Amino acid sequence: MKYMFLFIVSFKIIKKKFTKLNEIMGFQRSHSSQLKVQTILKAKEDETCGGGEAPSFSLRASNQSHYHNNKLMSSNYDSWLVKHPCALGSFDRMMKAAKGKRIVVFLDYDGTLSPIVDDPDRAFMSDEMRAAVCEVAKYFPTAIISGRSRDKVKEFVKLSNVYYAGSHGMDIMVPAIPVESSDGKLLNTMDTEVLFQPAKKFLPEIIEIFTLLKEKTKEIQGARLEDNGFCISVHFRQVRQEDYGKLEERVKSVLENHSEFCLTGGRKVMEIRPSIEWNKGHALEYFLDTLGLSNSSDVIPIYIGDDRTDEDAFKVIQSRGQGYPIIVSSIPKDTKAGYSLLDPSEVLTFLQRLARWRKTSLSNRPLHQV
Ligand SMILES: O=P(O)(O)OC[C@H]1O[C@H](O[C@H]2O[C@H](CO)[C@@H](O)[C@H](O)[C@H]2O)[C@H](O)[C@@H](O)[C@@H]1O
Q: Which of 6, 30, 34, 65 has the fewest CB atoms within 10 Å of its CB?
C-alpha cells in the first residue's frame, strides 16, 4: 500500500515536470534558434523606443547601440518562456481546462493580427489571418480591441461577425449579432446595437490638439500623425534618431495647455489621449457585461496582444482568476500575461487550432446533444 502510494505520487510529479518541459519545448520546436535570435534582435530594436507610461524618446535612442549579445538574449528569452509558456505548446492543457466553459476571444490588431510595418496605413492583415479570425468568430464571441480608430480597424479586418472597439477601447460598438452558448446553441440575439464612447465630450479638444500638432511637427522629417478618433498617434518610426528629442519636446509643448490629456508610449509611437479611467481592460469588461457574460463563473476570456496597452486587459483577466492572457513578443518583457506567442504567424496558428478544436469537439458530441 505504502509503495503504491509512493509510486502514484512520484508518477504525478514526473508527469507535471514533463508537461512543463513539453510546453517549453513546444515553443522551441516551432522556431529554429537562428531565426529566433534574428527576430529577437529586430524586435529589440523596435521595442527600445516603445512602451512606458511617460516616454523619454531621446534617452532611449541613445541606448540603442548597446545591444546584448545574441546568446544572452536567446537564453534570457528561454528563461522568460518558463514563466510565460508558449500558448501553442500549452494548447491542449489550456483547452482541457476550458472544456464545457464559454470561451470569449479578444484580439489586438497591430503586431498581433498584422505585422508591424513602417507605414501605418499599410498594416494589412493577410487573407489567411482574416479567414482564421472569421472561423474563430463562428464558434466564439470575438472582439478586436485596437488603438486605431474603430472605422480604420474595421476597414483592415473586413469581418462582420466580430465586435470592434477603437481608440484603445474608448469607442465600442456591439452590433446586434447572435451569441452562442458553449454547446453551440443560440444564447441571445441583441436586437439593438450598442455604442459606447466614454470620451465623447473631449472630441472638440482632440480636434484642436490634432491641428496644433500638425503645425508643430510639420518640419520634423518622417513624423506622422494619425487620427484615431478619441486619441492621436504621433509616429516616429521614420524619424531620424537625432530628431526624437525635438519631436517629443514639441508634442509635450502642445499638451502643456491641455491638462486633461496625457501622453503614453507604444511601439515607436507617442499617443495622446484623454486622462480618463478607461482602457482596454475596461473595454474587455464592457463587452463581457454587454453580452451578459460578466458574472458567469464559466467564462474563459482569451486576450491576445503585443503592446503596453494590452497589459490592462491582461490584468483584468488575471484578477478574474479565469482566462488566458497571451502576449505576442519575441523578446522577454515584463508582462501580466500568463502565456506567449512569438509573432503574428504564431497567432495565426493558435487561432486556426482554436477553431479546429471547437469544430472537432462539436462534431464529437453524442447525438442526443446535437
Ligand atoms: O492597439 P493596436 O491595434 O496594437 O494599435 C496600436 C498602434 O498601432 C499602430 O502603430 C503600430 O503599428 C504600425 C503599423 O505596423 C507601426 O508603423 C507603428 O510604429 C506601431 O506603433 C497604429 O498606427 C497606432 O495608431 C496604434 O495606436
A: 65
